[in-house]
Design brief:
- Strand 8 and strand 9 form a beta hairpin.
- 47% of the residues lie in helices and 32% in strands.
- By secondary structure, the protein is of the alpha+beta class.
- It contains 4 helices and 9 strands, in the order αβββββββββααα.
Length: 217
């Protein structure tokens, strides 16, 4: 039973820790628009990676939707090799969503990169892959924990059943042993009364003739 409670607590704590990491504050502090061959790199400076949806409205106009992110009071915007860029606007669309509106020639052909404080730059494809891996690891751990939990419950039930059956068999065996001992024990019968009765009725030394003469008298 203790092992089952431990597994339940482990799954619960693991789930809470995963949710807590996802729900932690993630702040966008800067956006860097850099012109490269045949397109742009859009670098987002955040605390951790986030889900990003790229909405292409036109070849020269895109909107990035960042989920689970809030913007800093002042978001720094940098332009590198972007003579054809006309605007970049950061909008807090809701409490945990940020939209980045960019207008520049051929901006539809752009890469999205996360610049994190404690790691190398992460491309959005890498970020999505990491999120999938993390989710798969969590799902696999949850499934394994549930399988172990089910096996533990089945094992404990089988153990309880075995103990109950063994206890019943032990009681039956003890009853049988007691019955066998009583059945095989010798029966003692007292013959003291029988001897007294026989001696009072007839003396062994008397013969049949003496008895007949005694009767005629």
């Amino acid at each position: 039973m203790k092992r089952i409670i431990f597994l339940i607590e482990f799954v619960f704590i693991f789930a809470l820790s995963t949710i807590g990491v996802s729900a932690a504050d993630n702040v966008l502090s800067a956006v860097i628009l850099e012109g490269v061959d045949n397109g742009y790199n859009i670098t987002l400076k955040t605390d951790t990676t986030a889900k990003v949806k790229k909405v292409v409205q036109a070849p020269d106009k895109v909107t990035l939707v960042l989920n689970g992110v809030s913007s800093a009071p002042e978001v720094n915007v940098f332009y590198k090799n972007t003579p054809d860029a006309s605007s970049l606007i950061v909008e807090n669309s809701s409490r945990n969503d940020v939209k980045v509106h960019i207008k520049a020639d051929n901006i539809a052909n752009s890469n999205i990169i996360f610049d994190l404080p404690a790691s190398a730059p992460v491309f959005v494809t890498d970020s999505a892959q990491n999120e999938n891996v993390a989710f798969n690891v969590f799902a696999a751990g949850l499934v394994i924990a549930l399988i172990v939990l089910i096996k533990s419950v089945a094992t404990e039930k089988q153990t309880d059943k075995t103990i109950a059956e063994r206890g019943l068999k032990d009681r039956e065996l003890e009853l049988y042993r007691n019955y066998s001992r009583n059945l095989n024990s010798p029966v003692s019968i007292s013959t003291a009364g029988t001897k007294d009765y026989a001696s009072n009725v007839m003396d062994r030394r008397r013969t049949i003739r003496s008895m007949q003469s005694f009767a005629r008298k």
